[in-house]
Write a structure and sequence with these properties.
By secondary structure, this protein is of the alpha/beta class. It contains 14 helices and 10 strands. It has one domain (about 10-304): 2-enoyl-CoA Hydratase, Chain A, domain 1 (Alpha-Beta Complex), CATH 3.90.226. GO terms for molecular function: 3-hydroxyisobutyryl-CoA hydrolase activity.
């Protein structure tokens, strides 16, 4: 293993296989939550490999049972309490720059989304060209419960989900499985867990940057999963009716009006999530997603 990141940290490991580089998020005990060293290391890798003609494909994956559970907000909060706001400002600036570079990258990136994918973990994967979910993938943007809002360019990709599904996912922090990620467009492929290692080995043997060639390889291992009967995507009529409203108060009121007539667990869970979340975060999140529909990914990241 040799890596532009290796001098900074063993929290991002790099495997070189021919013209493929595999970036491994390596904080398994912290569910690969992104530290300052990790975002700096990833940024160095992406900027370096952009210029290297010998590198044609990037694979990103997590070590352990999570892809990445998000940014290490505990580390940021602790630094503010102990020192000043500067560490947090530097962290978010570097993270958002990384997100933008991934979103505009010239070479294909394949993210192998096994386990938890939340917050900042979505930022280093969803903006890339290929996102491979599996049966143990759990996706969420839980920021409103933390007093934050879906950032890392989430106002760009959430606003482009079907109907008002982005508002539902972003405001409630609802958890999606791999089949739901594929169905709504957050994932590009679904590969069964027992075939992921075979996919990875095939990708490591690729000597091309052609997205069609990469897609063809992933397609060989992919399947079309069925949505569970309880999936929120089977409730799009209710989601669109409620989450299309202009204000958070109207969204909650409409959900509460729906509750007695539909006896739907989704409605009850959505109301509970919204009632527990930070009211300020909910308002910022709704405005952010709505603005994101009319903005580029760069404009979304700059505003966030």
């Amino acid at each position: 293993m040799a890596s532009p990141a290796s001098s900074d940290s063993d929290q991002v490991l790099v495997e070189a296989n021919g013209s493929t580089r595999t970036l491994i998020l390596n904080r398994p005990k912290q569910l690969n939550a992104l530290s300052s060293a990790m975002v700096t290391g990833l940024l160095k890798c992406f900027t370096s490999y952009e210029e290297e003609n010998t590198v044609k494909l990037l694979i990103v994956k997590g070590n352990g049972r999570a892809f990445c559970a998000g940014g290490d907000v505990a580390e940021v909060a602790q630094s503010i309490n102990n020192d000043s706001w500067k560490y947090g400002a530097d962290f978010f600036r570097t993270e958002f720059l990384l997100n933008y570079i991934i979103a505009t990258y010239s070479k294909p990136q394949v993210s192998l989304l096994t386990g938890i994918v939340m917050g900042g973990g979505a930022g280093v994967s969803i903006h890339g060209r290929f996102r491979v979910a599996t049966e143990n993938t759990v996706f969420a943007m839980p920021e409103t419960a933390l007093g934050l809002f879906p950032d890392i360019g989430a106002s760009y990709f959430l606003s482009r989900l079907p109907g008002f599904y982005g508002e539902y996912v972003g405001l409630t922090g609802a958890r999606l499985d791999g089949a739901e990620m594929l169905a709504c467009g957050l994932a590009t492929h679904f590969v069964p867990l027992n075939r992921m290692s075979l996919l990875e080995e095939s990708l490591k043997r690729v000597d091309a940057s052609d997205p069609f060639a990469i897609c063809g390889i992933i397609d060989q291992f992919s399947k079309q999963p069925s949505l569970k009967g309880s999936s929120s995507l089977n409730r799009m009529d209710i989601i669109n009716r409620c989450f299309s409203k202009g204000t958070v108060e109207e969204i909650i009121s409409t959900l509460e009006q729906e509750a007695p007539s539909v006896s739907d667990k989704l409605v009850t869970a959505a109301i509970q999530s919204l009632r527990k979340a930070s009211p300020t975060s909910l308002k910022i999140s709704l405005a952010s997603i709505r603005e994101g529909r009319l903005q580029t990914v760069g404009e979304c990241l700059r505003r966030e």
